[in-house]
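Our consortium's second objective concerns turning raw sequence data into structural hypotheses that experimental partners can test. To show how far this objective has progressed, the report includes one record in full. It was chosen at random from the queue rather than selected for favorable results. The single chain below, 436 residues long, was entered without modification.
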Amino acid sequence: MKKGNAWALLPIGIFVILYLGLGITFEYIMGVSMGFYNIPIVVIFLIALLVACLQNREVSFDQKLALMGQGIGDKNIITMLLIFLMAGVFVGVVGRDSAESVAYFMLSLVPARFAVCTLFLVSCFVSTAMGTSVGTITLLTPIAAAISTTTGFSLPLCVGTVVGGAMFGDNLSFVSDTTIAACNGQGCKMKDKFRTNFAIVLPAAIVTLGLILLLSLQSDIRPMEQHSYDLIQIVPYLLVLIGGIIGINVFITLLIGIASGCVIMLSTGAVGFSELLKNTGTGVSGMFETSMVAILVAALCALIREAGGFQALLNGIRRVFRGKKAGQLGIGLLVGLMDISTANNTVAIVMANPIASDMAKEYGIDPKKTASILDTFSCIFQGFLPYGAQMLVALSAVSMAGLELSAFDVIKHLFYPMMLLISSLVFMFFVPDRKK
């Protein structure tokens, strides 16, 4: 067993203390709205990187710069950055109106009694197509609040349904930054990770749908108001979803989605050419912080690895988690702890990637399985965080609708993350891996 250096993990500890400590102070002590998201995460990572540079005096600063350059220049990091930016362009092109068309079209097909069940399916579809849970929640929570108000369904049930469905797509989508980060960090194809993941999420989604249906049948409801929609705006989402499922290269898939979105949005007069260009810029800029975090984390991890920090962590995990199945649980808990610390599942995956990769080699875990565990457990933990972006955005949207709701009321109705955790553990410990 190689000797590790636990002190090399100090930069991660500094990051956790500053980010989590300031976030809790702002959000719960000072009462700052969206307190966790007022903290400049890039600055906190820069401080952690500075601490890493001051450690390991045996390596000169020039050598440390070279190590950071090697970490940032890794093929998986470069690929991840390019996909982040292209996914931003896609979201900017198709815009909010397209996703609303998807939502209202599906809701128009069912009786009011099954509105919440449909809301879950809509949330799953939109989040899978858009690749963003926060975007899905921002879009659909006002619709959920309207369904609750007009039909009489429980507001926590409607909002919890949207949050759960949003985490479905965050975990599974080909254009989700969590999927991109997990697959590129572990060096596996997205279609392979999708197939591994789908077997886990499908039972969780079916059971969730059954629970929502059971509660819906017990509720007293009123008829639901109808809204207009444009079916042609659904096409880009469908093309991206189909392209990802059949295994077309992710860059080509995104280009198809972007091209079709541009043609449809311009030909239907939904936007003008100048506005479309502006929207692409807005979409890309929305990925800048995530891209910068990926760069800083790659540099930070390169220094921590060189100093023996990851080896020390691996040695500790070996002593606690013995065997392949326990190792899988160790990877899940690792990314979960990172997510609790950062309140950002993409950042958690990026931070956990190099350690998880070493653990996967140590325990003989397939890269697609490792990517699936990282993505799934990060989404499970993120869904439950009362200070996570998903929950804060949902509560903010409810408040803007003139209603009041507590995070803990919503948490009790997060059936999908609960079922996903159970399904993940069942597949991890009781379902044997398929033979290659």
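The partners drew two points from this record. The longest helix spans residues 75-107. The chain has one domain: 6-429. Both points have been shared with the crystallography group to help prioritize constructs.
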